[in-house]
Amino acid sequence: MQDAPPPEPAAFLDALARIEGSETFRASRQARALLRYLVERVLAGEGERLKGYTIATEALGKPADFDPAADPSARVAMRRLRKLIEDYYAAEGANDPWRVLLGPGDYAPALEARAAPEAAPATPPAPPPRRRWILPSAAGVIGAALLL
Description:
This protein has 6 helices and 2 strands, in the order H-H-H-H-H-E-E-H. The protein is mainly alpha-helical. It is rod-shaped and about 115 Å long.
């Protein structure tokens, strides 16, 4: 089965660069490296290949005899990465044009365009014109009554 076409590479790489350069990710070299590895794999069309074992051996440097059932390090690293991404978009990345999505249980990140905020109308609609009722003067009422 063939992977779906990769998302817009330039947008994905721009989103990655914003995250990597953020204050949220500054202190975590491992999270930056892991996210870069995941994005590069997705852009190479290998998103379906990403599993706990693959991530542990290729991105986290675990040996080939790594047992993901016995060692939760890949799951822990992914959980931490998801939390950092969530923190990033809650603060620094709140207005980013693109959002990297990495849901629970997912190993392949996705890219989502940030919805544009709804534009408020420039000016509120004008109220309908008010009718002015002019009360005739007493002399006008008497004159009109005499004419009839």
